Amino acid sequence: MVRITKVYTKQGDRGETSLVGGVKVPKDHPRVRAYGTVDELNSLVGLVRSTLDQIPAAEERNRVDASLASIQQWLFDLGSELATDPQSGKGTGIAIGEQQVTWLESWMDVMNRDLKPLESFVLPGGRLPLAFLHQCRTVCRRAEREIITLSREGEIAPQVVPFINRLSDTFFVLGRWLAQVCGEDEILWNPGATTPPEWK
């Protein structure tokens, strides 16, 4: 268990931070950018959960909330893994594995059974939890890009990229599924066919 007795340490005032294992790196190091973006994503998942009261179906709402709570825990696990210097030999023992990837795939398969195939891209929006899920998807894709950059110069576990890749897909499918639960029509991209209203 992590024990935090003091939030500020003044250690980072010179633009450096310490990885798990004690190695100091610049705060814009690829490893720091990767776990920092995962932390940002975790905050957005919290925003989704805080707005789930807008979902009218209680059973679905509660199951989604419990699922997102697990995802938040996994994102902290992932952040801990990414924040560890692989050369230090001081791993946390926490790792993202194949079981998390398989669970995300299974959840998407269940939700997709209720959804019609898409005929175009979905425009972000809708009620708050749906809009935040779109934002989760895009930040998750950014986290994936940061992790890929890190993988070119540092060691990462084999299931990290599959997990973050499936997670972004999960946010997209969940947003579609909740829109259906709420009875909301999806607004689809209509390439080149939109005329804005006149302003006079």
TrEMBL record:
State whether keyword Nucleotide-binding applies: yes
Among Gene3D superfamilies, the record links this protein to: Cobalamin adenosyltransferase-like (1.20.1200.10)
As its record notes, the protein acts as a catalyst of: 2 cob(II)yrinate a,c diamide + reduced [electron-transfer flavoprotein] + 2 ATP = 2 adenosylcob(III)yrinate a,c-diamide + 2 triphosphate + oxidized [electron-transfer flavoprotein] + 3 H(+); 2 cob(II)alamin + reduced [electron-transfer flavoprotein] + 2 ATP = 2 adenosylcob(III)alamin + 2 triphosphate + oxidized [electron-transfer flavoprotein] + 3 H(+)
A single MF term (Gene Ontology): corrinoid adenosyltransferase activity
According to its UniProt record, the EC number is 2.5.1.17
SUPFAM superfamilies documented for this protein: Cobalamin adenosyltransferase-like (SSF89028)
A single Pfam family it belongs to is Cob_adeno_trans
Annotated metabolic or biological route of this protein: Cofactor biosynthesis; adenosylcobalamin biosynthesis; adenosylcobalamin from cob(II)yrinate a,c-diamide: step 2/7
Domain Cobalamin adenosyltransferase-like residues, every copy: 7-177
Print the keywords alphabetically. Answer: ATP-binding, Cobalamin biosynthesis, Nucleotide-binding, Transferase
Family matches, as InterPro entries: CblAdoTrfase-like, CblAdoTrfase-like_sf, PduO-typ
What does the similarity note say? Belongs to the Cob(I)alamin adenosyltransferase family.
Q: What is this protein called?
A: Corrinoid adenosyltransferase
Which organism encodes this protein? Nitrospina watsonii
